[in-house]
Write a structure and sequence with these properties.
The chain has helices at about 45, 60-80, 135-145, 145-155, 160-180, and strands spanning about 1-10, 15-20, 30-35, 90, 95, 100-110, 110-120, 125-130, 190-195, 200-205, 220-225, 230-235. By secondary structure, the protein is of the alpha+beta class. It folds into 2 domains: about 1-125, no CATH class; about 130-235, Alpha-Beta Complex (Ribosomal Protein L22, Chain A), CATH 3.90.470.20. The strands form 3 sheets. A 5-stranded antiparallel beta sheet has the order 1-2-3-7-6, with helices on one face. It has a 5-stranded antiparallel beta sheet with strand order 8-12-11-10-9. A two-stranded antiparallel sheet has the order 4-5. The longest helix has 23 residues, at about 160-180. The protein is globular and about 50 Å long. About 35% of the residues are buried.
């Protein structure tokens, strides 16, 4: 799913930084960062020229580190395309993209990822990154998948817990992709996984309820995924 074009490190906080394009959607560029929150310093926001949001004054190191890493990735992507603005944050915590741009952010543990595209590309991108957590997936499966989805996942070639994580993650990506259009929160049961193609690393979602005039029950959306040794990335456009 990812085509790396360049990579480097900015130690001690950023141990790995990779930029590239999405294979299936070349209009999208991404920046993936591995960071070390144990190397956190409060002056890193100023160091990386990322505006510090007031709500983080009471946040812990983990929240500050992941927020900074994701938005620094977005800042690098925007600068690569000639835009010197930063990504803001709305009252509901959704990213506020500079005029002419859209995108999505995600983070988990020591990783963050950002994707961007020009608004004129007609994309509604949503990205999610998750660490593999087999035990947690089994314990929480009923919260984000139906019995029908669990049967489909059990029948696919992926390990069952990995398939559950894929379903969870792609629904997170779906929410991020559609929230700017829907403008309200919707739950995991707003869509169901109806196909997983491990050969092409694609996953199909079907809306189970109408979210907007253009996003009606029965509409299908194609997602993409990339599975690594310890983490998973999903994308909806």
């Amino acid at each position: 799913m990812l085509t790396p074009l360049t990579h480097y490190a900015l130690p001690p906080f950023i141990s790995y930084l990779e930029m590239g394009a999405m294979k299936a959607v070349p209009q999208l560029t991404y920046c993936q960062i591995r960071f070390d929150r144990h190397a956190w310093r409060d002056d890193l926001f100023a160091h990386y020229a990322i505006p510090f949001p007031p709500r983080l004054h009471t946040a812990g190191v983990k929240r500050r580190a992941e927020y900074l890493a994701a938005r620094y990735g977005a800042k690098l992507l925007l600068a690569h395309h000639g835009c010197e603005a930063s990504v803001g944050a709305a009252a509901d915590r959704a990213p506020v993209w500079p005029a002419g741009w859209c995108g999505s952010l995600s983070h988990t543990d020591d990783r963050a990822i950002a994707i961007i595209a020009r608004s004129g590309a007609g994309l509604a991108p949503g990205i999610d990154i998750e660490m593999l957590a087999p035990e947690t997936m089994r314990e929480t499966a009923d919260m984000f998948t139906s019995a029908q989805e669990q049967a489909l996942i059990a029948a696919c070639p992926l390990p069952y817990e990995t398939g559950l994580l894929l379903a969870f993650s792609v629904k997170e990506s779906l929410f991020k992709a559609l929230y700017p259009e829907v403008q309200r929160f919707f739950d995991f049961d707003a869509a169901r996984v109806c196909q997983i193609d491990t050969a092409t690393q694609r996953i199909t979602l079907e809306l189970t309820q109408t979210l907007t005039a253009g996003r009606t029950q029965g509409n299908q959306l194609t997602g993409y995924y990339s599975l690594a040794e310890d983490h998973l990335i999903t994308l909806i456009v």
